[in-house]
User: Which sequence fits this backbone?
């Protein structure tokens, strides 16, 4: 760790801390919305599975629109202004969910999701201001570790609060995290851009590293979107789990994700291939095992087990992406990467909602194992075409 030995790098440590804290603060609130809204919709507002799927799709779809169509088109200075404004608006809408009803919840979900679309890609891109490649990649690992920490802390806090309060009241207790995110948003740096380079078209989609990152992340984003939307409903519908235990279920899932990312943050990723193979294999096995789960404890163990690929896949994808683009290109690449992930998160809840309505929860989880198997072979083939990304340190 000699890279942090001089005074200049003390500023880097401070900045990395800011990135970690704002990531934690924004993601903990976003996860609250994504995991609580399906339960409110199902058990408070009496939505059917199709409506729940559409609502979940709108939450992330609106974010994808912001990321791909607006954030990606702006210069660095304007992206910074939009970033700060979006975090402020997100804070304003958080307590409004307390007052939501069968109709207003659609508006709140769409608007809050829309403005969240500029948050995460810009936090990721801000790591591009760190010149040292090794520190930058470790910062990406710490960023994903912060995500996992927030996803453990959030459900645990929710589980405790649900012993005394209802699902609606949860939103009021998370306001301080939003205030912290607003305060830190002014400290986030944005990579400087060469205006001549901005005029040059960056063909992100033809970049082999970008394609690999997309396929790799889709291999887990698909089942993750399913778990996020219907995992809690599965526990309650199949095993009559109380709301507080559902949050413990999610905390267990993210705890294994946290451990996986903790290992990656300690051990610098060199060979991505091996990590990817392990991740996708566990995903396939886990989805099949959910189909055969026969009690709540078994289901809990399987969901926790699926937290491992959740922890491994995202940092692996970000590392591959970071190795594939120059500094003046990475912001655009991150924006399109995030937008495509949002598109997947729109498609999966929509399809899964319809499938749950027609074939049931168990069969839906089993069905989603098949596209992951197909992606498994595509990714293996892609790694052979771009060995530099896998082998570069």
Assistant:
């Amino acid at each position: 760790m000699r890279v942090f030995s001089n005074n200049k790098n003390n500023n880097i440590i401070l900045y990395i801390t800011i990135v970690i804290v704002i990531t934690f603060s924004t993601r903990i609130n976003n996860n609250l919305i994504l995991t609580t809204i399906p339960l409110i919709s199902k058990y408070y507002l009496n939505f059917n599975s199709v409506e729940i799927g559409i609502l979940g799709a709108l939450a992330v779809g609106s974010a994808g629109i912001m990321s791909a169509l607006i954030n990606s088109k702006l210069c660095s200075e304007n992206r910074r202004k939009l970033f700060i404004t979006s975090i402020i608006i997100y804070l304003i809408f958080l307590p409004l969910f307390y007052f939501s009803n069968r109709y207003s919840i659609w508006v709140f979900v769409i608007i809050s999701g829309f403005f969240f679309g500029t948050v995460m890609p810009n936090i990721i891109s801000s790591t591009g201001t760190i010149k040292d490649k090794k520190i930058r990649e470790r910062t990406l690992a710490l960023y994903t570790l912060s995500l996992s920490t927030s996803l453990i802390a959030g459900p645990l806090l929710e589980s405790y609060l649900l012993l005394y309060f209802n699902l609606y009241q949860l939103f009021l207790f998370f306001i301080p995290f939003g205030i912290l995110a607003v305060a830190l948003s002014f400290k986030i740096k944005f990579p400087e851009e060469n205006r001549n380079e901005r005029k040059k078209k960056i063909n992100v989609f033809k970049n082999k590293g970008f394609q690999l990152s997309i396929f790799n992340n889709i291999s887990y984003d698909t089942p993750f979107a399913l778990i996020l939307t219907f995992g809690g409903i599965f526990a309650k519908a199949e095993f009559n789990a109380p709301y507080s235990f559902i949050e413990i279920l999610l905390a267990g899932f993210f705890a294994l994700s946290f451990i996986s990312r903790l290992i990656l943050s300690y051990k610098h990723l060199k060979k991505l291939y091996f990590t990817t193979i392990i991740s996708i294999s566990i995903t396939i096995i886990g989805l099949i095992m959910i189909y055969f789960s026969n009690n709540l404890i078994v289901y809990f163990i399987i969901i926790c087990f699926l937290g491992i690929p959740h922890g491994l896949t995202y940092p692996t994808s970000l590392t591959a992406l970071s190795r594939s683009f120059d500094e003046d290109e990475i912001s655009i690449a991150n924006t399109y990467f995030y937008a495509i992930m949002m598109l997947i998160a729109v498609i999966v809840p929509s399809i899964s909602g319809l499938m749950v309505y027609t074939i049931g929860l168990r069969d839906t989880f089993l069905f989603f194992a098949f596209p992951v198997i197909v992606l498994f072979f595509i990714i293996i083939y892609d790694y052979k075409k771009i060995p530099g990304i896998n082998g570069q340190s």
Remarks:
- The chain has two domains: 8-190, 202-392.
